[in-house]
Design brief:
With 380 residues, the chain is of the alpha+beta class. It contains eleven helices and 20 strands. The strands form three sheets. Strands 5, 6, 12, 13, 14, 15, 16, 17 and 20 form a nine-stranded mixed β-sheet that branches. Strands 1, 2, 8, 9, 10, 11, 18 and 19 form an eight-stranded mixed β-sheet that branches. α1 packs parallel to α4 and α1 packs parallel to α9. The C terminus is likely disordered. The structure holds flavin-adenine dinucleotide (FAD).
Amino acid sequence: MERCDVLIIGAGPAGAAAGVTLARAGLGVTIVDRAFFPRTKTCGDALSERAVALLRALAGARAESLPRAEVRSAAAILPEGPRIVRRCSGDPGWIVRRVDLDACLRDAAEEAGAQVIEGVNVRELLRERGVVIGAAAGERRWRASVVIAADGPASIAWSALGLEKPRQQQLAVAATTYMRGVTMAEMGCSEHYLERALPNGYGWVFPAIDGWSNVGVYQREDSFHAGGRRLRELLAEFIARHPERFASATAGEVHAWPLPLRRTPRAPAGCPGLLLAGDAARLVDPLSGEGIWQALRSGQITGEVAAASLAREGRVGAAALGRLRRRVSLELGLPCWLKGQVQGAMRVIVEYGLARHTALSWALQRGYGGAVEPEEEVLR
Ligand SMILES: Cc1cc2nc3c(=O)[nH]c(=O)nc-3n(C[C@H](O)[C@H](O)[C@H](O)COP(=O)(O)OP(=O)(O)OC[C@H]3O[C@@H](n4cnc5c(N)ncnc54)[C@H](O)[C@@H]3O)c2cc1C
């Protein structure tokens, strides 16, 4: 049996952020991941401004050398309607390929003092008298004062916690590809197309890195199922609907992956000896599909709560779980729940073409924090 203060399952953004935070607090941290880094992850690769700020705090100088495209504005494009553009007032957001981002975060955790072990597929959580005390992967076993499950959207923690797999309104699905030669309307602008063919979702085109743009479709699972289409078809049709962007572009392979959404304010925290972070805690924003900031921030909060509880009480019990649940629910759960309500309203606006109504257009601009740009000024 190998021993450590904290065992983290998963070295993605959530696990790495928890690892950096705990190692900086002086704890003995082991992070295990089934993959070997650098590894890719199906994603849109978009880091919001707040995700970039947190990445910088966690990875320091490493973050500055990441290959990236800067995002200086974001456009929500409604069918036959306005293009609402929000411009960055401060530092821009970034597009960073996950193969680079996740390797950077993994290395930052190691640099902070965490031990990172790759190629370890955790199959089982170990318990003693109802408390999680470690995990096992084949013959290898780890014993820890606390285990953090940061193992993504099919976490092994869920069955241990008696949680059903998310589905319908608690889940989204997305497909993405890299395309070369996309004609963008504006440099450094990420575009989100709200379309009738993608209710409770959108299609996206993001600024290119080395000529390759991340292009994809995102939809809540209940709407996706009701449509009766395959994700690959939805992506092909989205691309076909926009010759102004894609007529001279070539596409690479298509990849699809699920996103566990947070649609209630109260987020699951874990159980005695076990804490959840990132997609394992189901923290993706249902409206935007943003999950990287949520993973980084929840990993950081989980690390802070675990470090404080171990220093004070030598364990992570009911009081620590309560503190974690309150912080994550307030800072991440509540905003996601509100965004879920906005998603419902947006669906009606898109479906019935209401965006041209003056009052609604005004509300949309305020809600989006942007301005409606006249269509004749937009290069399409
Ligand atoms: C198509 C798509 C597009 C997206 N686009 C964006 C976007 O543009 N911007 C954004 O902010 N978010 C986006 N997201 C969401 C974002 O990708 C996730 O929310 C984010 O990756 C969550 O990070 P995480 O660390 O919780 O999980 P992950 O990134 O999934 O990392 C989990 C890690 O755990 C490891 N692991 C899993 N199981 C085990 C096991 N049993 N044993 C050991 N290791 C294990 C995996 O190998 C992986 O390294 C997108 C998601 C999808 C599917």
